[in-house]
């Protein structure tokens, strides 16, 4: 079967050369006579891969020296618990900015662990169609941290500015737009991102964390949940998901080889421009619920005139080799995920299909 | 490079046909035009793999209907915390039987969470050379559970009987001997096993748990740590490590095709017999510290007359294509891991090398 156009929301498309490298090397890693999957996490072969992945992340994002780069397991849902377990000290409160289903979940999990406040929400009738403005936030200057979700996969919104939080550390769930472009890591106290959107397979989470936050983290929690445990052991306290780290290494190495994050951003902007441009050409047919200034470059959501047409759209697109276009089961409609590995050519193919579909009505 | 003889302690050797299948299918899973890694965890293609893996586990171990089969992340170290978080209710105490470094760690993590007792230990001078006898255990009939480690990778011991715990549920860390043969699941309240020894890559943990224990688990803990959360959602509450589950499926399917656990046990017994037989032939040269009745079928540890000879043994074996023979950094000596995927031929090769090495002195 020829390769499809994969618009999945995550796990999602990965760069073909990174997968081809994995395929080529799968039975014999680097001339060692065994698979990377069969290597000890304490051996030289894996250690080289592990450290290369960390150093590629540092290089791509210019991660400052006073930040740890950690590999964790369990995805964002695990971090929803682990962030407050580490950072929400007794007697303190944390601020959560709610911009979609995932920030709701992060808030609810934190609520089970300590004192939390909603510092702002753009929810209207259980929907979120925009990112809040600074003046809509009521931030507690004494908060332990402010939590935000930089990109909202369900509702197709994305922050294009960062809230001003003064001395309060900003904690960001960046699972769905991590590495979509350069960011200024210094603006954040802690960033976490499940790998399965932009950088690799599911089962691995990258955490960038300011060292003082890690060192000052709560000590009265299980050892395995402490960021400090993983920081002290270079993310090798326990056996990490070695193949996932290997594949992230392949993706990051490929990213560097092909122009780094500037080139990634250029392609991502081009793809979003193509798709939103096509939606905006036919406002009578394609209805984009998201406020223009809050539109996501990663997940583009829109509706057609009827659910009947939406079903037909998804089915016909599938027949032409385009998959992953159904909106989240909680929202319906169409969702097109444009993660880093989705090719510009796939979006060109999609928009020409969209134009033809809209003409046929 | 030809395939080496891989005696790694974990991550460890996997069956070559399971890896070859992964390699063949890596770019195009089941004619879908994308990698299994790129499939949504909520799509039909992955769902089929996920459910097949669960059903193969049920079939291989005759898992009774009143037990859940769950996929978790984070390995045994994560379970060290999650077991007491779920099962150690306020006002209760749990019993831990200590037979090596991993049970020590399980105990220490549980101690941070609730009240725990040591119900038995075979530690002498920080070493463990045997499994306790029933009469050495001081079990609390009111304990929330009794925790044991069925096989001890560092010290090379293994339980060949099960402690009688009455109505108290037995919780077993089976990471290093899971599926080495059939077991009677009914003897256990809960079993957990990191995949990276006998059944797959690191990053995935299998949990078999009696439904009443899951249902009665603590509700005042973070949602993601509750077994009940994962049970209710067929281990799809959050994005699971999809490729790890896929590869476990390959290993389990291959196990069934090649004769199931009876054949696995037969081969494992043959391998251990060959290796312990060789050790016992030359007690003047090979010193096996473990009491005969407690010897592990999975990890065989022994010493040579000097550390100098041990270093030479490991280096010469490596030159002949045998890797993973160094003992754990905390114990030294030689350790040979004989997990399911290690071929009888590899052990034959090793023992003939051992005999020649011992003759040379």
Automatic annotation (TrEMBL), chains A, B:
GO biological process, one term: L-serine biosynthetic process
Compartments (UniProt record): Cytoplasm
Binding site for L-glutamate: 42
UniProt name for this protein: Phosphoserine aminotransferase
In-chain residues carrying the UniProt-annotated modification N6-(pyridoxal phosphate)lysine: 197
Keyword Cytoplasm set for record: yes
Major site of localization recorded for this protein: cytoplasm
Native species: Chondromyces apiculatus DSM 436
UniProt-listed Enzyme Commission number(s): 2.6.1.52
Cofactor: pyridoxal 5'-phosphate
